Amino acid sequence: MATKAKIGVLGASGYTGSELVRMLLRHPRAEIVLLTAERSAGKPMREVFPQFSPYELPTLVAIEGLDWKALALDVVFCALPHATTQKVLKDLLAAAPETKVVDLSADFRLSDTAAYAKWYGHEHHAPELQKEAVYGLVEIHRRDIRKARLVANPGCYTSGAQLPLTPLIKAKAIDLDEIVIDAKSGMTGAGRSAKEAMLFSEVSEGFNAYGVGKHRHMAELDQEFSLAAERPVTVTFTPHLLPQNRGILSTIYVRGRRGRTAQDLHEILSKFYAKEPFVHVLPFGETPHTRHVRGSNMTMIGVAADRIEGRAIIISALDNLVKGASGQAIQNMNLIMGYPETMGIDQVALFP
């Protein structure tokens, strides 16, 4: 039997941490040997998430005092809050430089540390690590990810926007000054911490925009779209909160360049993703629902013609906890460990 990788999950008591555990339990090459959770340290995982009662898992522990060298972990998934992550990973990689890291926070997504300071309100505390971090959107950066020690897992909103838009930007097929991204996310995107605004009675039967004109994911979108276009790109992006647990639906409005029609854009995306296991482009005119991807690592993309000549409407759907976070993180792990890319994450969407 092939040797299993020794895996640590930092921040295992959050939604993305528990989703990592759920998926890693079915991964044939993963052995979970470390689970951390500051407030739940000392508890078995089943007390925090009863769905794990049938499985033998490590007891949750605090990060402080861990001997990273002695642990000799092959891969660490870091699902900690931004800023906290920088210090933890700096200490971890100094003590155990052979460990591979997939970071699910925002700490290493922005290559420009000045941009990080602007959007997150404090200077970056691990700039040397930032220089080596590879942005982990697999379908776009697969080659670089394979060689990485530190992978910055993309944001959920940004994954839902980049997957449909990046191929079109690279093909110079759309007007870069007329991109509008209208995105909606389920409540798990806000994390598991107790917040008054996330109470059932505060969220149910309602629908609202937030971070209007200033959401932090804008910096990530600007960076990646500018890289694809080889010139500065600034898009309009507005996130909304949906009263549901999972899912992101992005409705994207674009104008084709040089006479490109909506059908032309559909053809570009269909060819680009024809062999990708986790991106599916629907037949022209069809659009996805969030329930079509729930619990899976799949992103579905639909393209339709706008009634305004030259414009197209692109809709993407993904599960924010899977392709938008933990599933994509395991996809990154598979690449850096040399495993088949689909290993352990090829489950079909749960429906209904």
Account of the 3D structure:
- With 352 residues, the chain is α/β, with parallel strands linked by helices.
- It folds into two domains: 5-132, NAD(P)-binding Rossmann-like Domain (Rossmann fold, 3-Layer(aba) Sandwich); 157-319, 2-Layer Sandwich (Dihydrodipicolinate Reductase, domain 2), CATH 3.30.360.10.
- The chain contains twelve helices and 13 strands.
- Strands 8-9-7-10-13-12-11 form a seven-stranded mixed β-sheet.
- The radius of gyration is 20 Å and the shape is globular.
- The two termini are 36 Å apart.
- Keywords: Amino-acid biosynthesis, Arginine biosynthesis, Cytoplasm, NADP, Oxidoreductase.
- GO terms for molecular function: N-acetyl-gamma-glutamyl-phosphate reductase activity; NAD binding; NADP+ binding.
Features:
2 domains, 32% helix, 352 residues, globular, amino-acid biosynthesis, alpha/beta, Dihydrodipicolinate Reductase, domain 2
The major beta sheet can be summarized as: 7 strands, mixed
> CATH H-level name of the largest domain... which superfamily?
Dihydrodipicolinate Reductase, domain 2
Strand order of the largest sheet: 8-9-7-10-13-12-11
Percent of residues in β-strands:
15-25%
Task: Outline the fold blueprint.
Elements: E1 5-10, H1 15-24, E2 30-36, H2 45-48, H3 68-71, E3 75-78, H4 84-95, E4 100-103, H5 113-120, H6 127-132, E5 134-135, H7 138-146, E6 150-152, H8 156-170, E7 180-185, H9 200-203, E8 208-209, H10 217-229, E9 236-241, E10 248-255, H11 262-272, E11 279-281, E12 299-305, E13 311-318, H12 322-337
